[in-house]
TrEMBL record:
Bilayer-spanning residue ranges: none
Keyword Aminoacyl-tRNA synthetase attached: no
Taxonomic placement: Bacteria, Pseudomonadati, Pseudomonadota, Alphaproteobacteria, Hyphomicrobiales
Protein name in UniProt: Zincin-like metallopeptidase domain-containing protein
Statement: the UniProt record of this protein carries the keyword Cell inner membrane: no
Chain ranges of the Polyvalent protein metallopeptidase domain: 143-266
Domain N-terminal: 1-117
Length: 305
């Protein structure tokens, strides 16, 4: 998967860029499990965002072969699936002894890959019906403002650049008139809020990277992915123009560490959950990390135990 991302970046096209139209797709078009209705999270958002299948039909639904078969749906012959990942820290034994003095037991990381198929590859699956109560774009933009207001982030207006300053813990935004649209401003504000979350008293990420450095590229990826995830939930486009130097730096980061893509996606999901919690309508929106949400996961954990 990392090799696919590198190849796309070298061609100048970040593959996770959101090509769907929230208005056409009926609002938030984050990938969901067709059998359970759960949203995919973390690395799986990027995995499925790289597939053209979801965007050719504007249907965000995916499911495993086993889930489809259990519901009488049939994967068409010759169709190729897409890999998603399930990760969980499994507790073996009790956390502490009966007297509370010593730890016992252990935590085992469990990781499984699953193959999922898009709704367009499945016969018998009900037709996709976009949500009817789609919020107008103005309300989706207001949702971003609500998140920022409730977060307590300090926003200063002026200049021609948008950035987060760790030294003063504030987000700088150009005047509204400098943006092409209100959606564009909201998207960039979400991106800067992603950086804001990395302050010492929040997630305590290293924000000292200079422009063009590997550390800078890593932080930019986290801010971009988190804005993608929050924007997907709110139904807002999140297509932020990246400087070529950032993309070049991140290509080198990925070549040196094939796991960085997964680390960045995991951090971005934490950021997205953190920001969404500042909105009363989404404070309880976050779901447990049950990516595949299938019986196969339970079987895997039982075997590991």
């Amino acid at each position: 998967m990392t090799d696919r991302v590198i190849a796309a970046l070298e061609a100048g096209a970040p593959p996770w860029r959101k090509p769907w139209n929230p208005d056409v797709a009926g609002g938030a078009a984050m990938p969901v499990n067709a059998a359970t209705g759960r949203r995919y999270r973390g690395i799986n958002v990027l995995t499925l965002a790289m597939s053209k299948l979801a965007f050719s039909s504007e249907d965000p639904r995916w499911t495993t072969y086993k889930q489809a078969a259990a519901r009488g749906w049939q994967i068409r012959g010759g169709e190729r699936g897409t890999t998603v990942f399930f990760f969980k820290q499994l507790q073996i034994g009790d956390d502490r002894a009966s007297d509370g003095s010593d730890e016992r037991g252990k935590r085992i990381p469990v990781m499984r890959t699953f193959t999922v198929f898009h709704a367009s590859q499945i016969d018998g699956i009900p037709a996709f019906t976009p949500p009817k109560a789609t919020q107008p774009i103005s309300q989706r933009i207001d949702s971003v403002e609500t998140i920022v207001r409730n977060s307590g982030a300090v926003i200063r207006i002026g200049g021609d650049r948008a950035f987060y300053s760790p030294a003063t813990d504030h987000i700088q935004m150009p005047p509204d008139i400098a943006f092409h649209s209100a959606e564009d401003r909201a998207s960039i504000l979400l991106h800067e809020c992603g950086h804001w979350s990395g302050a010492k008293d929040r997630f305590n990420r290293d924000l000292t990277g200079r422009f063009g450095s590997a550390l800078y590229a890593k932080e930019e990826a986290r801010a971009e992915f988190s804005s993608l995830m929050v924007g997907g939930v709110l139904g807002l486009p999140t297509d932020i123009q990246n400087h070529a130097s950032y993309l070049a730096s991140w290509i080198e980061v990925l070549k040196n560490d094939k796991r960085e893509l997964f680390h960045a996606a995991a951090d971005a999901q934490k950021i997205a959950d953190y920001l969404l919690a500042f909105h009363p309508d989404y404070a309880s929106f976050n779901e447990p990390p049950d990516e595949a949400a299938s019986d196969e996961v339970g079987e895997t954990l039982a075997d590991a135990a």
